[in-house]
Amino acid sequence: MEDIMKNTEVVVMNFSGIYNLESFTENDGVTMLDCRDFQGVDRYCDEASVIRLKELIAPYSYRGIHFIDSGDYHYMSKFWTDKICFPFNLLVFDHHTDMQEPAFGPVLSCGDWVKETLDSNSFLQKVILVGPPEIMRSTLEASCRTRVEFHPESELLHGDGWRKYIGGHKDVPLYISIDKDLLSSKMVPTNWDQGEVPMDKFNDILSAVMTYEHVIGVDVCGECAGSLNFIDQCRACEKDNRANEEILDTVLNNS
At what angle do helices 199-212 and 230-253 cross, to 10 degrees? Predict the structure, then answer.
């Protein structure tokens, strides 16, 4: 099993059309998948769309870096990790746990995909959940806690507490899922409530993870809301584009 290589695939899943305003998608080696005509995919993914989305990404590997639009589509991380057929750990950078019970019955959603992946993927050994507020620890179901390593936002904001989850999982390959709602809204505007982590601090952490862990794949979500007026959307997309370029450079330059 090889780590991510510098010539790896960069796949962009354009659900909302927001990536049309971000210039990083024009770089050589970037594959843009047009998902704008998909129905039944906004926050919740119905059965028909599950099949269609899996068919769409079938030609592409879990290896590489995948940009999956706003946090409304974070459930795509489950489909990318479903491709992994050997034991692995999942590192999730997120301001939320994404382990909530769905509001409309057993339908995959952006709010429960981590729990669904834990329940359904026999190759997933452990989830390292980094970034939610400490209060969210108590919301984890007892049945999941033995397989979830919880690191609250405070560890990222104060001192070097974040170092405790770096370099400790090299015996098992690691897939990374990043929701930019972990970051301060001053740096990156998303369409969900956000944390307070500065972009430079996050890049330092991501760089260390890429250097000291056996990373096999990465995905990124957290684009701004598509409902903004044109001027505000252009400003937001400029910040998102800058953040995506920094994350992409950090991943590829530390592979």
Answer: 30
Q: Whose CA is closest to 192, among 127, 106, 100, 116? A: 100
pLDDT at 4 over 50: no
Beta bridge pairs of residue 163 = none
Task: List CB contacts of 209: < 8 A, sequence separation 6 or more.
Answer: 91, 166, 174, 176, 215
HSE at residue 197, side-chain half, CA atoms within 13 A, is: 32
CA distance 17 to 42: 13
Binned at pLDDT 50, 70 and 90, residue 2 comes out as very low
Task: Supply 171's token pair.
Answer: 């015996």
Q: Which long-range contacts (CB under 8 A, 24 or more apart) does 162-166 make?
A: 162/130, 162/205, 163/208, 165/91, 165/128, 165/130, 166/205, 166/208, 166/209, 166/212, 166/213
The backbone torsions φ and ψ at residue 169, rounded to the nearest 5 degrees and listed phi first, read -130, 20
Beta carbons of 194 and 93 less than 8 angstroms apart: no
pLDDT digits (tens, 9 = 90+) for 93-136: 999 999 987 666 678 999 999 999 999 999 999 999 999 999 99
